[in-house]
Amino acid sequence: MTQWTGKRAVLVGPDRPLEIHEVTEREPGPGEVLVHVTHGGVCGTDVHLWRGEMPLPNPIVLGHEGVAVIEAFGTGVSTDSAGEAVAVGDRVYWQPVVPCQRCYACTVLGDVSMCENAFAGVFKDAAGPTAASYCEYATLDAGLPFYRVPDDTPSDAVIALGCALPTMLQGLERLGGIRPGHSVVVQGCGPVGLAAAWLAHLSGAAPLIVIGAPQRRLEMALRFGATDTLDMTELPDPAARAGRVREITGGHGADVVIEAAGVLPAFSEGLNLVARAGRYLIVGLWSAPGTVAIEPRLINNLNLQIIGTALAQPRHLHQAVQLVQTHHAHFPLAEAVTHRYRIEDSQRALEAVARLETVKAVIGPA
Ligand SMILES: [Zn+2]
Ligand SMILES: [Zn+2]
How many angstroms does the Cα of residue 298 sit away from the middle of ligand 1? Predict the structure, then answer.
């Protein structure tokens, strides 16, 4: 009988250094898949969790986006969640979110991104089988959506935009899409902002303005299709940035503004960047509790729409893999993975992401 013993990075409490535990995995049960994780994506949300900005019911293994190699199947699994045959040695992409199919959102709304029990998989006991990705070995739960990574598609390119790409794909769907020639502003240039810029570019947006910092990420945004960037360190005044957006958009403001900054002041600023009859998509404020002052009559008087979006549905994970397969040769996806850490160094990875040193950090074997 094969033994799978591996390390995992455990978050034991707010602001405490991650602990490295060694665990021997059990054989995968019915419907489960045991995988060897090669790419545990580090997401800004992990930093918020580490800092205690979201309540943690118990110690957890971090990591909610991954690419891994299949080691073993439980009974009853021969395909990925799209019905494609999978074998030991194949690579898969997943998030540890399992729609329960037994709640109002799953079965009545038909929107599993709103599943009331979706985080049961994320908040699992850190000592048992887990589908979290800061692990050497992970166990994908029965019913957990996972998709085979095509042989011609690099793992780095798939993890580069991590959970951000499926999240933005759902966002664009909820927004109602972007038409060729729409002017778009993206606030933020982390993985969510880059995913937003890339999808807006693929949709034909022009001009496509990305607001953010540091310069390294803005340069990456240009390579993902942005036509203009506004560096917040050079233009620290929101009124000056709004002025630049007006200039670039012929005085109108943007048909679509996408908030991917994750900080509260972005909301009031973004509302002032939207053109008449424009739309404002809120993606990044998920883990930014608090209030800000806005002028609500703008929404009224300018026929604005404000659309929220959280998380993703399984189809968006599948769509993300397909998009990466089609376009990875033409966009710097794999290059966006700028930092790589061993599991033992997961703490350093979180700190580097917190300091915005990375474009994308990944945990796993070199
Ligand atoms: Zn994430
Ligand atoms: Zn549910």
Answer: 31
Ligand nearest to the CA of 116: 2
3-state secondary structure 292-358: CCCCCHHHHHCCCEEEECCCCCHHHHHHHHHHHHHHCCCCCCHHHEEEEECHHHHHHHHHHHHCCCC
Quote the pLDDT of residue 288.
85
* 189 Cα–ligand 1 center, Å: 15
Q: Which ligand is nearest to the CA of 63?
A: 1
177-205 per-position pLDDT tens digit:
999 999 999 999 999 999 999 999 999 99
pLDDT digits (tens, 9 = 90+) for 79-117: 999 999 999 999 999 999 999 999 999 999 999 999 999
Pairing of the two strands 254-259 and 184-187: parallel
Span 330-348, mean pLDDT?
Answer: 96
> 145 CA to middle of ligand 2, Å?
13
Q: How far is the CA of 44 from the centre of ligand 1 (A)?
A: 6
Question: Is 4-162+312-363 a domain of CATH 3.40.50.2000?
Answer: no
Show me where the domains of the chain are located. 4-162+312-363, 165-308
Ligand 1 centroid to Cα of residue 163, in Å, is: 5
The pLDDT of residue 226: 98
Predicted local confidence at residue 297, as pLDDT: 95
Q: How far is the CA of 356 from the centre of ligand 2 (A)?
A: 34
1: confidence class by pLDDT, cuts 50, 70, 90:
low
Q: Which ligand is nearest to the CA of 103?
A: 2
Neighbouring residues of the ion ligand 1, judged by CB less than 5 Å: 43, 45, 163
Q: What is the DSSP code string of 239-264? A: HHHHHHHHHHTTTS-EEEEEE-S-ST
Q: Which CATH class is domain 165-308?
A: alpha beta
